[in-house]
Amino acid sequence: MENKELIRLEHVSKSFDGQVVLDDLNLVIHENEFVTLLGPSGCGKTTTLRIIGGFETPDSGKVIFDGKDITSAAPDKRPLNTVFQKYALFTHMDVADNIAFGLRISGKSKSYIADKISYALKLVNLEGFEYRSVNSLSGGQQQRIAMARAIVNEPRVLLLDEPLGALDLKLRQDMQYELIRLKNELGITFIYVTHDQEEALTMSDTIVVMNQGYIQQTGSPEKIYNEPENAFVADFIGDSNIIDSIMVRDKLVSILGHEFTCVDTGFGNNKHVDVVIRPEDVELSEARADALCGEVTDVIFKGVHYEMCVMAGGFEWLVHSTKMFPEGAKVSIGVDPFNIQIMNKPASEDEEAATENDQN
Q1: The dihedral formed by the CA atoms of 179, 180, 181 and 186, expressed in degrees to the nearest 10
Q2: Kind and range of the H or E element at 160?
Q3: pTM, rounded to two decimals
Q4: 240-347 has which CATH code?
Q5: Fold entry, domain 5-226
Q6: What is the average per-residue pLDDT within 349-358?
Q7: Better-predicted residue by pLDDT, 218 or 3
């Protein structure tokens, strides 16, 4: 059962110095959902977060929170808190004073504040750190204190603007699991901004893929990865083979001159389409006369699998497989019909950018 709607952005647009950053954006976020805004630099994801948080005002459109229009409400009048990439901790205060800052401004009692500090430090696994200097903490510990400071204010929504960006890989991975745990324990809505696809796939209930101020696709990590709606999403989320092909008829597509059975229908006959095939879905076997054949041009051992490049039909295929074919080997290419994703070709760059926006 889907949780109730909490936040709705209606036809939100925003420009800076004449440059359109968000163009008629519509988005719905539900209670207790971990939503990730994902996309390349300049796609509008941070601006979207700042508009939700009240740090920016849209040029047009509305921000609805729990049925109320909060478009013009100040950040401190919204039931949410933000954790920034820079953490914004007060270096002249110890850990306890940093965590208690918002509570003291709200006029909470000393005993209430002490209880909340203890609770928050336990939640982020930093018990006993109350009187530590912020400057003595590692990057990961500072990130947790920033989280604790946000949590004690009991927000209904936590906004996170690339909070793991400054951490090294191992610590970043550890903190991903911490964030999932916190979200589950606290029962609040997380809205997370990142350009890191792995982060988005690991943590999210829902991913919102953005580009050029438009939402390209919204869905679960599995749907975004396995059923990309356009070439941008397919290319941005993980590795993909994106091939100019011809839809011969329903359930039959011609890829590089060879016909493959697929499961897609409704694209018409003899129509140019884009085909997406993930590297792990390409099946290599010994070369056969009746198949699309090619030659292995490169092999890299990745630990869990081999990454191979295969030149076949004038296209360089990326292949991930636990079975290794050596460089120079002649192979044939096979794909399960369910692993061939068919997409309409956009008529123009504007249509490509606006694909999902037009569907909202």
Answers
A1: 80
A2: strand 157-161
A3: 0.81
A4: 2.40.50.140
A5: Rossmann fold (3.40.50)
A6: 48
A7: 218
